[in-house]
Amino acid sequence: MKRQLILEDGSVLLGEGFGSEKETIGEVVFNTGMTGYQEILSDPSYCGQIVTLTYPLIGNYGINRDDFESITPAISGFIVKEVADFPSNWRNEISLSEYFKSKDIPGISGIDTRKLTRIIRKYGTLKGAICSADEDVQGVLERLRETTLRNDQVKQVSTKNAYPSPGRGKRVVLVDFGMKHGILRELNNRDCDVLVVPYNVTAEEILRLSPDGVMLSNGPGDPKDVTEGIEMIQGILGKVPLFGICLGHQLFALACGANTEKMKFGHRGSNHPVKDLVTGKVALTSQNHGYAVEDASIETTRLEVTHIALNDGSIEGLKHKDFPAFTVQYHPEASPGPEDANYLFDQFMSLIESEESGANKCQSVQI
């Protein structure tokens, strides 16, 4: 099945199709992870994107039931150098191509992914199409020019209804902007009584649930499009401990008066070094984001930068100077990637306990 990848700058790369045969259009990005393709393809943060994997052989350990980060993938397509037709792993259930076919997701192999990555690094993320090799290139380019990428990705991937994930510990409201299951897993591992709620939940609705803490999840797209989340954060800030990850980090910054900006090609991979400015320690982190908090915009807020990326100096962590709230741009739940930053979930639990302890002291003084 001959297919072609056409980019909006006019670049045409020929390859072999796998998975679905439909045409797809999306934002072409690249991920540098050497493993974890199953977690990547099921990460809701890739909604509307066609992902290029720089590692040359993908699918060699197949697809299993345990490594999904969502039930229904939101990814638009996959670009690889070589796809493994006969995976070998004791957990393997079906091949990558079979899975993509069952989910109607198109993929293309035989692409020079190093060349494609250099194009993206030079020009930034581009709109692209995976289509039949018989399609007229000029016709596809015209469709690309006419296509406006959707700005409701969070609405597409967020849960429509609230649901519980019961535990006997702290009650945490997890706001689903495109949540990876790894975040829920880490909260469950700490016996939290988790209530997962939609992206458009209001501050009043959250406070009525009497949470001990609120978690803001990752998610796709431009944070400025998620006005409901920004208003909600402003309504709960200072009233309950808060921890945000990735898109949750960006929304927190916007809610506190900072600004966000689109990056040239973003951070997507599983080995990004991040420095903790408090301890001086460096952690290798899993990242997936195309927007970042603007450094200069922090100066007029009550926010403090806690972490920076060592590769480019961009902001990777924030905390509020007055309220119990902190966020990180990277993924402490990993999946895929190193678990160096997993301690941040314990830090969130400690923040909740310290706030409860302080409240109890105030009550005893009043009595």
From TrEMBL:
Active site residues per record? 246 (nucleophile), 331, 333
Q: What is its EC number?
A: 6.3.5.5
- State the residue spans of region: CPSase: 1-170
InterPro entries, per the entry: Anth_synth/Amidotransfase, CarbamoylP_synth_ssu, CarbamoylP_synth_ssu_N, CarbP_synth_ssu_N_sf, Class_I_gatase-like, CPSase_GATase1, GATASE
Matching entries from PROSITE patterns are given as: GATASE_TYPE_1
User: Which UniProt key words apply to this protein?
Assistant: Amino-acid biosynthesis, Arginine biosynthesis, ATP-binding, Glutamine amidotransferase, Ligase, Nucleotide-binding, Pyrimidine biosynthesis
On whether Nucleotide-binding is a keyword of this UniProt record, the answer is yes
EC top class, as a word: ligase
Name the SMART domains on file. CPSase_sm_chain
- Which of this chain's residues are annotated to bind L-glutamine? 45, 219, 221, 247, 250, 288, 290-291
Q: What range(s) does the Carbamoyl-phosphate synthase small subunit N-terminal domain occupy?
A: 1-131
The annotated pathway is: Amino-acid biosynthesis; L-arginine biosynthesis; carbamoyl phosphate from bicarbonate: step 1/1; Pyrimidine metabolism; UMP biosynthesis via de novo pathway; (S)-dihydroorotate from bicarbonate: step 1/3
User: What are the protein's GO molecular function terms?
Assistant: ATP binding; carbamoyl-phosphate synthase (glutamine-hydrolyzing) activity; glutaminase activity
Record keywords: Signal included? no
Homology family: Belongs to the CarA family.
Q: What is this protein for, i.e. what is its function?
A: Small subunit of the glutamine-dependent carbamoyl phosphate synthetase (CPSase). CPSase catalyzes the formation of carbamoyl phosphate from the ammonia moiety of glutamine, carbonate, and phosphate donated by ATP, constituting the first step of 2 biosynthetic pathways, one leading to arginine and/or urea and the other to pyrimidine nucleotides. The small subunit (glutamine amidotransferase) binds and cleaves glutamine to supply the large subunit with the substrate ammonia.
Q: How does it assemble?
A: Composed of two chains; the small (or glutamine) chain promotes the hydrolysis of glutamine to ammonia, which is used by the large (or ammonia) chain to synthesize carbamoyl phosphate. Tetramer of heterodimers (alpha,beta)4.
Protein name, UniProt field = Carbamoyl phosphate synthase small chain
